[in-house]
Amino acid sequence: MTNAAWETLGNQAVAAAGLAYFIALLVHLAEWAALRQPAAREAALVGETRGLENDALVEEVALQPSRDLGRRTASERVAFLGRLGFLVTCIAAAAHLVAMVGRGMAADPNRVPWGNMYEFTVSGTFVVTLMYLVLHRRFRLDWMAPIVVGFVLTILMVAVIWLHEPVQPLMESLNSYWLVIHVVSAVIATGAFTLGGIASIMYLVKMRAGEGSTTKGGWLRRVPGLDTLDKLAYRVHAFAFPVWTFAVLITGPIWAHEAWSRYWNWDPKEVWAFITWVVYACYLHARATAGWKGRNAAILALVGLATLWFNFIGINYFSSTSQHSYAIEGPELVQRTTVLE
């Protein structure tokens, strides 16, 4: 295949992935809607039986098989939609992966698909999906499906509409094996922090709605209890933090020294990456020493998530001085980097 054919394949795969994510989102929303039906039916049945007299107990027993059948049918519908949504998400992830491979193979010479902000965003959203799929069974993340799919779909739309650029060769400073080591670890940590942030968001949502009332009906009854959400957020953040430390404080400075002969340049992206590291270090330290749990820990985790995604997109897109700004055109970036050096 020619480079142009690979680039076309990458663009078509992104479109296919977006369509599959959209279908998966619709299926999971239908699953959430179906969750209300058993609860509503149960409430109606309870209301009816409260008015029964003692001499009507025979009728109550006669209705029991039909009730059990109704509950079983609704439960099977929810389970089917959940499996279908997960399958479509897997298909979307496969198309997502093809899009990344197509971008890398379209370059001359072939390279990893992390040469500009569009490619970073496509890769970052893929890792979010991949980590959800990997952890889905281990942590029973069925409830997180529409949130993850909706988030990935939204960021992909932003990337395609505002960040898309033609495939170009890597800049000289980016053409290093440290690009693979540094970016892979940073993107893995970003995906894990995002999943932990979603758990923290849902903790605050469920706490505000009231755990006791939300478990009786509606889509929030699918979300685990507050203690489970709190533990899930902590475990995911505890995994992501050392990976982020490796990316920000070890491989990043080494690569910077190799590319620009300086370990630390006070570049806006470097500063914000360190700010993110400090926030998450405070989060884990507060939980380990001060016993922070629940609401305070969730808020601090979301502060870290905000700094993370601002660093991931905001600095690259809005900064006029960062050597890491990949949202602009390639020639302008080369000229800017030459001046900064």
Automatic annotation (TrEMBL):
Look up the domain of life of the source.
Bacteria
Question: Where is the protein found, in the record's own terms?
Answer: Membrane
Molecular function in Gene Ontology? heme binding
Matching entries from InterPro entries are given as: Cyt_c_assembly, Cyt_c_biogenesis_CcsA, Cyt_c_biogenesis_CcsA/CcmC
Protein's membrane topology: Multi-pass membrane protein
Query: Where does the Cytochrome c assembly protein domain start and stop, copy by copy?
Result: 114-319
Keyword Nuclease in record: no
Give the record's GO biological process terms.
Answer: cytochrome complex assembly
**Where's it mainly located?**
membrane
Pfam families, alphabetized: Cytochrom_C_asm
* Transmembrane segments annotated in the record for this chain: 12-35, 80-105, 117-135, 147-164, 176-205, 232-256, 271-290, 297-318
Xref: NCBIfam families: cytochr_II_ccsB (TIGR03144)
Record-given protein name:
C-type cytochrome biogenesis protein CcsB
List the lineage, top down: Bacteria, Bacillati, Actinomycetota, Actinomycetes, Propionibacteriales
